[in-house]
Structures
1.
Amino acid sequence: MRIIDADGHVAEGASLAVEAMQRWPDFIAPRSDGRALVIEGRNYPESEGPGAGCPREHGLSRAPGIDYTSPEGVLGDADRDHIDTMVLYPSLGLCAPTLEDPEFATGFARLYNQWIADYCRSSGGRLRGIAVTPIEHGAVAIDVMREAKELGLVATHVPPALKTRNLDHPDLDPFYAAAVELDMPLGIHGAPGMHLPKVGVDRFTNYIQVHCVSFPFDQMTAMTALISGGVFDRHPDLRVAFLEAGVGWVPFFIDRLHEHFEKRGDWIEGGWRRDPQEYLRAGNIWTTCEPEEPILPGVIDVLGDDFIMFASDYPHWDGEWPHSTEHLRNRPDIGDESRAKIGGLNAQRFYALN
């Protein structure tokens, strides 16, 4: 069974930050205590106050022997965890959609995309990078995404919402059309403390409470916008993955959306035209799972196994490395066909991997 990690992360380390500070000294600098970067006057991560993120020194796994400091170290860690291919989402790079100065935001996104492409190049295709874009700044985001496709990046990161717009805003239709044209899937990924729009987490200042709430609320917000706002009707070949919230919430929320579509769907002018489950069956909706989730067999029973992908969240503190794949490989309550799809075949289709 080929195992593809559909949502791992790269720990960018100093090299990306140093290059950015050299290029844009007026926009990015280290905080005096070393606990954050100060970008456009904001702390990344912001580890205090409403919606607090993880303090920088606690974000990464401390499992004995883990080595996320180089591509070679990551590949060695993948071997220990029986992972064949890792799709790497950003860590610091998740800040890209939040940058306010258009020229800086565009430059930073291009720098990140080139950096992650170079990082993955020596891996023989085992490490695959995810692009970032200045999505708040209009048409230039399409140019950056097109360049990222040429660099060999396999998807583009999209935040769960924008500063003043949801993901069904008509201004984003050209971006979605370009993603379809480029065969570039989109990965929706939030991150507390990174100045992405907050959904509910502003009620908490303790990072652990924020972490409990942030990822599922983010994904429900994004899914509501994309389905009920008619995005998949306007762009029927668009592929979107809802990431880092597990899969247990999906049957509940698809059913909730179904009820609202059935009883009051016509209240949304220009919105959804089909039952929410049809977008899932059509290949618009994908998600990742943590393979130890007790509800996984129930999700397969209710919604099928064609949209679920394995994710490790390597090398973050809440990941299970070097045991991320154990449940997937060994649990007896899912069949071998489902195991193979979740383990790698679905991610191979979503990311269009060889």
2.
Amino acid sequence: MSERYDVAIVGSGPAGLSAAINCKIRNKNIILFGNENLSNKVSKAPKINNYLGIPGIKGEELKEAFKKHIDSMDISITPERINAIYAIGDYFALMVNEKMYEAKSVILATGMEYGKALKGEEEFLGKGVGYCATCDAPLYKGKKVAIIAHNKKEEEEANFVKELAETVYYIPMYKDIENLREDIIVVRENPVEIIGNDMVRSLKLSNTTLEVDGVFVLKDSISPDQLMPGLKITDGHVEVDRQMATNLKGCFAAGDCTGKPYQYIKSSGEGLVAALNAVSYLNNKK
């Protein structure tokens, strides 16, 4: 049986890090998913003037302070992308390719860096559209698939899919391809729409249309409502109450994904609130 964590935190920006710190202080067994380099959004800020107590700090300096803090508390980041989260009875299953993590509660701190869904993407999710190529590749043995990749690290997933699929079209949303199999067809056009009836039938690009049986949309982060079935979204953000609780019992959210203002100090505070209430939720279950 896999280890079941008390709290799984998805996101390594200010909200996720704050949540991790405050759960750890209260002796909860946590797992933190995200980028080991923390938030690129923070590091790119030339100067931050509204973070209480440290006026005029550069984004890179604030990021280093965050890193020093979590290191001092022996908090590590698991650099894996969560593809789906399911509520299963009194715990949550977090899916990462072929692996599954379990947690008694979840804090979503995904930020707002995920792109807008492609036309048809949500309509055909689970009907030929997927976010994990290595998970679903066996479904497309001998078939045609398209892979929309936002990062060169997805080349490895595409190579794996080609071992099973007859034809793989690779649509890179970045410049330089490094390690892609020669028998994968690279198409440098922008995706426009995923088309089908009961299932995916084709992918419309800016100049051509590809007849395919499936489309994998591989991006660094997935919008919360696509990540977690049943999650209530209002105006493009996760709906939460004053306790940062979502409509799903045991699931909390914090930071930019919960709405404006998109400010580091606001995200940090919400991470604290989400952590305190996740801990309270766990303690009340005992």
3.
Amino acid sequence: MDLREEILRRQDPYINEILKKSSVSILGCGGLGSNIAMSLARCGVGNIYIYDYDKVEYSNLNRQNYDMADLGKSKVMQTKKKIEETIPYVKVYAKDLKINWENLEEISKKTDIFIEAFDKKEMKSLVFDFFLGKKGKQLIIGSGLSGLGDLEDIRIKKIDNVTMIGDFRTSPEQGLYLPYVGVIASLEALYAVKIIEGEANGK
């Protein structure tokens, strides 16, 4: 049994093989993105593309997948490093850049599944507008993940090729706490895995 098989032996071997060949892009590497990236790596997604231009600061440590040694360093590069140290067979492609309409054209060619992981409304809107209705592409967005939340308020909405997950009402002014941010991050990662498995099986 090789390393990948040993690590993933508590998962379905058939799904493991599907995930091994899959690719997902994560736009943003903060509270959502850094946790989504590690979650997908642990599930066995073979290729993960991550994009962000930000650096790690103290206020990130309460909910983002970083530690004191990462302060002042590139979020995408530190996320890549953590994944490679934890799950060494996953291929992580890290790009340190600020997302805009022009570079989304190039980014959109890399994979067919994209996860939006920003906390600024204007960035969420940019990504939504770019991908909505784009043939052959699937976008997953987190919307409303602040405060301590109410789990019964979490919903899933679909608009064409865009899936939105969250409570659709909370805002960052209510505070950002890992338990609730982490729930939304896990659901976004789960939905990506379900898309991969579903497409492979013609669902």
4.
Amino acid sequence: MERIRLQLDLQMFAGEKTEPATPKKRQESREKGEVAKSMELPAAFILFFAFLSFYLFGGYFKEHLMQLFRSIFNDYLLMNLSMENVGSLFNQLLLQSLLLLAPILLITVITAIFGNYLQIGFLMTGDPLKMKFSKLNPIQGAKNIFSMRTVADFLKSVLKMSIIGYVVYSTLWAEKSHLMDLARLPLDSIFVFASSVSLKLGVKIGLILIVLALFDYMYQKYEFEKKLRMSKQDIKDEYKKTEGDPLIKSKIREKQRRMAMQRMMQEVPKADVVITNPTHYAVALRYDAQNMQAPTVLAKGTDYIALKIKQIAKENRIITMENKPLARALYAKVDIGEAIPADLFQAVAEVLAYVYKVKGKAN
């Protein structure tokens, strides 16, 4: 009973997702568009750099804005009311508006692309746009609404609004003396003051949102890594899919070794001599002067395989010679089916000469 309970506990432990995701699973998740990403980071960058652009291109905005109003009040209001003049007015207003907004639009687009590239790099996938009926599951939708992630997002929003509210309050409170004097100032001074305060608030809030978005990105990264975790069984299953079942592969390798061994043993009866250690090594050699440039190793092995080679040699009346250094050298340097190297020619030639001499006497 205790043994069964232990086995069940181990199976439950194997199913827990405690292991980091494999590169294959990460790649598959990326292809589906599932990446660690904070939607707030690009928005924070856009807000910050948009307000910063007013500081950088303030002269440009002022010039085009003044030109727009100048052309309206000095030129178009004095013209006769006609379809041609009205069309010219709207075309001019559209052109001036585009020239006025072009820097902001360009900065916004570049910042949005940069904010996303900074998080996930270059990614083009249409998988999130596919129609999936699982997204319409009301039960899963209810779970998402009342999940811990929703609570975390709510608390994050409350924290963000609290910090922004405090920044706005502290900034306006610091300008309270100027606010009280606005009633006595001309319209252009009021406009300059309001613009200055708005720009300060925009840059401050943008910086705060960037800092909060970086924390949000770290949180999203943590949640994403947690979601991608795999169990030990998942990793084994993935390995089986990609590399094949290790048990089956080991059986295939074993079968291949047996087949190679069988082919090698079938070549032993063709040998001229078997050189031994005498017990641990055995190398079968053959030399055909008409078809071979040098003697060739037909079979080799150690221990049990060496014993089999010597047994087959004995059954086929092949001469077996004991030469420890030569047997070791041939086994280490020459693969099956290869000719012997030049540095072993002399030693092998002496062995073959002795073999041919013995065979000659026997005949």
